[in-house]
Amino acid sequence: MYITSIKLKNYRNYEEIKISPLKDINLIYGKNAQGKTNLIESIYLASTGRSHRTSKEIPLVKENEEVYYIKIKGKKEDIPFTIEIKYKKGEKKQIKLNNLPVTRLGELIGVLNTVIFSPEDLQIIKQGPSERRRFIDILISQTNNQYFYQLQIYQRIIKQKNALLKKKDINKYIELLDVYNEKISETAFFIINERMKFLKKTAVFFNKYIKKLSNNKEFGEITYFSSLGNTMDEIKKTLEKNKKKEIRSNISLYGPHRDDFTILINNKDVKQYGSQGQQRTAVLSLKLAEIDIIKKETGYYPVLLLDDVMSELDISRRKFLTESIKTKQTFITSTEKKNYANFKEKTTFFYVHNGQIDKR
Ligand SMILES: Nc1ncnc2c1ncn2[C@@H]1O[C@H](COP(=O)(O)OP(=O)(O)OP(=O)(O)O)[C@@H](O)[C@H]1O
Ligand SMILES: [Mg+2]
Fold first, then answer.
1. The pTM is what?
2. Which of 9, 75, 154, 254 has the fewest CB atoms within 10 Å, i.e. the most exposed one?
3. Rounded to a whole number, what is the distance in angstroms from the first to the last CA of the chain?
4. Is 35 in the pocket of ligand 1 (CB under 6 A)?
């Protein structure tokens, strides 16, 4: 899978640009604050429907403008696809796929698969459970549309349930609460089991990289913790058993929206016990595993987006990453061209300066 053209209009600091990247490595270089990450972000947005830096749309619109527009053309094998995203302040984001309007975000996700490497990745390990849930949810959604739909349904019911739990006269609505819990158990069962299955598969690749990067001294595992359990019976029982507790707390306390997974190296949670280096290795391995799992599940390698990561890695890890990007379309941002001038892979250079991009 690869991108053949990118067009941006009033997106972040870009007024209007169009570039035609090549199948191999595309080096986006330039000084700080010129638009390198903004370009990467627009690709990620076309892939997942959202920015990796903000959940809001307004910051994406160029200052003093009203509408941003992104058009990305690409190919899967030899079948072309076109993604268009248009957002006008105060209105709903419009998405078109191959010229036809898309009403559900789920139809977009999975068309252009990407794996992003950015300095913020470390948060998957260091931050709380919501970062890890976001990671796994986006990853599974990229390979399984059904998962994304179920997730949306689940989130909608949780929202309704929370509104109900906040009512002062909640005791009048116990029957409705039971109806919500019944619906929750169905979607939760699906989500929990998909996450567990998927993480198990991802962990195999993850472990492969941990071993390689540590010269076989370390091994990696990933374990999922479900607050509800994972059989239908356990899920229903946990919800029933904690009904009063949830009523007292006025919020829904159990379910995939509260779950977490642990990343372990040599049986120890990297978040709690890992050194800086181990945490970096873990996050790099997790990202590399993401490439493998997308290939395994969809049959295509994803487009790789490397934002400012090479400079943070030591030589051996950098070599490793360089090896891994071979034969995949990759966008790399850097402030320096010279580090890549002798790159063995076929590289196209794009110079970014104040919202302008020139092929060099
Ligand atoms: N909505 C917007 N309208 C106009 N300019 C914006 C908007 N959002 C961000 N910018 C500006 O875009 C510029 C480029 O940002 P970007 O993050 O792409 O820089 P960069 O080239 O990746 O730099 P660095 O090397 O520091 O990471 C910044 O100066 C930022 O202030
Ligand atoms: Mg940047």
1. 0.95
2. 75
3. 24
4. yes
Cβ pair 27, 49 in contact under 8 A: no
Give the pLDDT band of residue 344 (cuts 50, 70, 90): confident
Could you tell me the residue range of the domain that residue 91 belongs to? Answer: 1-113+300-360
* Cβ burial 31-58 (10 Å sphere, 16+ → b, else e): eeebbbbbbbbbbbbbbbbbbbbeeebe
Domain assignment present for residue 283? The answer is no
Q: Is 78 in the pocket of ligand 1 (CB under 6 A)?
A: no
CA of 53 from ligand 2 middle (Å) equals 11
Beta bridge partners of 143: none
Please indicate whether residue 312 or residue 248 has the higher confidence score (pLDDT): 248
> Residue 256 gets which letter from DSSP?
G
Tell whether 309 is covered by a domain.
Answer: yes
**Residue 72 confidence (pLDDT):** 98
pLDDT at 156 over 80: yes
Length of the chain in terms of residues written = 360
Which two three-digit tokens encode residue 333? Answer: 């941002």
Torsion of CA 88, 144, 2, 351, to 10 degrees: 50
CA 4 to centroid of ligand 1, rounded, Å: 24
